Write a sequence for this structure.
């Protein structure tokens, strides 16, 4: 079993290269979210983006993350084609490297300022970034044509191909490619929250499994802390192996909802378990196959900041 981040990314790139963006919403997410008033949602490991698109169509502001560039690029394009670009923020993140900080972008989206606010990470210990070129370009009405950046050229020539290609396709206003030193950790975990209790009303982790090393408990615990009071964390795990699953290991172990809850070890005065069960259902695979599967469902609500 390979364990590098590069191998994990390559595996999921190959997995999603043969799949179209969108698709059916996961039924348990629809069951939980349908009665809720739209708010801000986070889709962890969004994959083909069926859940993200469904939530956006219901009026949610959705942030979707996945390790696969292919999945993210296709989701952005699909959301734009459906007229949902203003409700969907799709970003590539390797959650094994840390939980991203979405606060500024979420705040901007809620205020209708997503197209005017760009949040970036800078190492201020290396010096104050020079924003003069961007400010001057904005004053001249050229912000959409000018990108001023800081790069350590001693580390090599930056790769501008993605941004250049996006500009050529008229997608510069929809694509943000950024450089982060993940070896330094996730900046979002080093700063206090900008508001008590986090920023999301709903966080969905649907079949958040991988064959590669991932501190899943840390990711899910951090997700629980990213909820606003009253917000819900929905964790749906496989409880059985479907014929179309990438995981066909007959010895695979699937944690029960109660064991997942125990591993999170959340303070019961701040989080409540609303549901922990293992329903069976008839499922339809990507190719139209059908099978009876078991889902391990854990629904957690944040009750206070």
């Amino acid at each position: 079993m390979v364990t590098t981040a590069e191998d994990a990314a390559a595996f999921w790139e190959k997995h999603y290269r043969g799949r179209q963006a969108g698709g059916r919403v996961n039924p348990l997410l629809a069951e939980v979210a349908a009665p809720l008033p739209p708010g801000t949602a986070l889709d962890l490991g969004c994959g083909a983006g069926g859940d993200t698109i469904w939530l956006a169509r219901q009026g949610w502001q959705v942030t979707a993350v996945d390790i696969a560039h292919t999945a993210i690029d296709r989701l952005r394009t699909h959301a734009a084609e459906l007229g949902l670009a203003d409700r969907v923020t799709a970003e590539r993140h390797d959650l094994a490297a840390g939980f991203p900080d979405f606060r500024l972008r979420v705040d901007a989206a809620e205020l209708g300022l997503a197209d005017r606010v760009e949040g970036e990470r800078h190492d201020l210990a290396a010096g104050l970034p020079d924003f003069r070129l961007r400010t001057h370009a904005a004053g001249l009405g050229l912000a959409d044509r000018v990108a001023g950046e800081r790069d350590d050229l001693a580390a090599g020539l930056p790769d501008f191909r993605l941004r250049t290609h996006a500009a050529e396709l008229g997608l510069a206003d929809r694509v943000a490619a950024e450089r982060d030193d993940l070896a330094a950790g996730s900046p979002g975990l080093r700063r206090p929250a900008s508001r008590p209790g986090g920023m999301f009303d709903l966080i969905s982790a649907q079949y958040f499994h991988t064959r590669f090393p991932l501190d899943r408990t840390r990711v899910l615990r951090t997700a629980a802390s990213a909820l606003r009071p009253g917000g819900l964390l929905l964790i749906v795990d496989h409880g059985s192996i479907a014929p179309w699953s990438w995981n066909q290991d007959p010895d695979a172990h699937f944690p029960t909802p109660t064991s997942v809850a125990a591993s999170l070890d959340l303070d019961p005065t701040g989080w409540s378990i609303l549901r922990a069960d293992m329903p069976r259902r008839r499922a339809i695979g990507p190719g139209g196959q059908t099978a009876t599967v078991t889902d391990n469902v854990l629904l957690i609500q944040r009750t206070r900041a």
About this structure: The longest helix spans residues 5-17.
